[in-house]
Amino acid sequence: MDQALLSLDKMIYGGIYDQLQGGFARYCTDNEWLIPHFEKMLYDNALLISVLSEAYQLTGNKLYSDTITQTLDFVNTEWQSAEGGIYSAYDADSEGVEGKFYIWSKAEIIEILGGDTGELFCSYYDVTDRGNWEHTNILWVRQPLKDYCNNYGLNLEATQEKLQMARQKLLQIRQKRIKPLLDDKIILGWNALMITGCCKAYAAIQNPQHLEMAIRAEQFISRFFQNEDGGLYHNYKNGAANPAFLDDMAYYIQGLIQLAEVTGDNDYLKKAKTYTEKVISDFQDAESPFFFYTPVWQTDIIMRKKEWYDGATPSGNSVMADNLHYLSIIFDVPAWKTQAIQMVETVIDTALRYPVSFSNWCTLAMQIEKGTLELVVSGMAAQTLHHEILQQYWPNKVLQSQFTQATGFPLLESRWQDNSTKTTGYLCRDYVCKLPVDNIDALKELVNE
Q1: Could you tell me if residue 57 is left (phi over 0), alpha (psi between -120 and 50 degrees) or otherwise beta?
Q2: What is the pLDDT of residues 352-365, one digit of tens each?
Q3: Per-residue pLDDT at 181 exceeds 80
Q4: Gap between the Cα atoms of 415 and 435, Å rounded
Q5: Who has the most CB within 10 Å: 253, 320, 379, 448?
Q6: Residue 414 pLDDT
Q7: CB of 196 within 8 A of CB of 54?
Q8: DSSP single-letter state for residue 226
Q9: Considering the chain, what is the average pLDDT of its residues?
């Protein structure tokens, strides 16, 4: 955990992170996270939001919640369309020069901010006359603000306020520059990854704007990505085009699952089940537990490939295995759990040799090994307990809630009481539950046991 958090800290302080507006660049070319390839991609930011949300649940470190909020504000402002779909990327170049939109000279900053504030800003963000990259400067942080203030004998709150005002002023100036080219395609899979990221952010820090972003994106998909045979399209730009690939479908099902967890709206689970059945009918390999990348009816390709390596994004097969495992518990479909386990068993030997390429598989393997917590929240007044559960870092779990009576879900069966003040929480394994509790502390004790 320490190593993972250290990596996150250094990325947030680094040049890979946009210190003025938020959002992460695609990757760095040095070993200090200073020099990015300045392209910003939706999928990178979606995945990092998910990780940062879990880091905040674990630590309560304000650095992570601030980074989540700033990055999602960037996505909302710059990339989310009026209809709710989210665009794909910003190019690295503006005016034909890589990074020109983001870089600064010291003289420029001093002129904008004035002498004292400008010098403070340049000192903290490592801006020099010589430059820290190709005779210009990328903003980055060499040490946390608290340590910086201690080293220079500065008041933390006053310095924090000065730097915040300076960032806002520089951002206003930067917004007048020519922006990098916007890739305004709306891709199903990448939007779905951001739906998951927004849901995890909402769970961790309870900002309703983050949930609203996720709901609007899902509504856009429901409105514009449906095709005639009950499937989905891959992308949208002035109309939908191209059939969805496996990862599009898998990420969308995952996003629906996350929406159900954070909202308690079980209609999302019904939709997730429908699309899971669609994946099985259209993508299943009859000779293995895995899925093809393209649907069976897509004939304009030389061969149908299967992908299972987790790369810059998780493989569609590893996400589908996770979806099958989760939904098998929600709907009591043993065949789906069996298939998920078979998929993990098939790749696990290779995963142990090359774990970096199978990280999502390894996460599911650990859950299968340790067992899955089945958490149920029920009652007309159960929202408080539901929100308190969302804020916990409890991996390897299924969380299902009902604030009005729901039917057709095994975990919720016989869990409803017609009492406007009654809240019950259950911890179960294989549908066998411990005695119900009505508060988060009691539930924590059961989980810890």
Answers
A1: alpha
A2: 999 999 999 999 99
A3: yes
A4: 12
A5: 320
A6: 87
A7: no
A8: B
A9: 95
Pairwise CA distance, residues 294 & 290, whole Å: 12
Residue 292, CA atoms < 13 Å, CB-side half-sphere = 18
pLDDT for the residue 115: 87
Task: Say which amino acid occupies 232.
Answer: L
For every residue of 260-296, DSSP letters joined together read HHHH--THHHHHHHHHHHHHHHHHB-TTSS-B-SS-T
Q: What angle do CA 58, 64, 68 make, to 5 degrees?
A: 120
Residue 94 φ then ψ, to 5°:
-140, 140
SS3 84: coil
Q: What is the pLDDT of residue 299?
A: 76
Query: How far apart, in whole angstroms, are the C-alpha atoms of residue 95 and residue 291?
Result: 43
**Coil, strand or helix at 409:** coil
What is the CB neighbour count within 10 angstroms for residue 286?
A: 5
State pLDDT tens for residues 100-139: 999 999 999 999 999 899 999 999 999 999 999 999 999 9
Q: Tell me what the mean pLDDT of segment 7-36 comes to.
A: 96
The whole-angstrom separation of Cα 260 and Cα 399 is 9
Question: Are 204 and 53 in contact, with CB atoms under 8 Å apart?
Answer: yes
Q: Show the 3-state SS of 11-68.
A: HHHCCCECCCCCCECCEECCCCCCCEECCEEHHHHHHHHHHHHHHHHHHCCHHHHHHH
pTM of the model: 0.96
Strand partners, 187: 235
Phi, psi of 34 (to 5 degrees): -85, -50
358, amino acid identity: F
Short-list 218, 291, 310, CA closest to 258: 218
Rounded distance, CA 106 to CA 18, Å?
Answer: 17
For the chain, the structural domain boundaries read: 2-183, 373-448
Query: If you ran DSSP here, which 8-state letter would residue 210 be given?
Result: H
- Judge whether residue 315 has pLDDT over 80: yes
Cα-Cα end-to-end distance for the chain? 22
Distance CA 25, CA 352 (A): 30
Residue type, 256: L
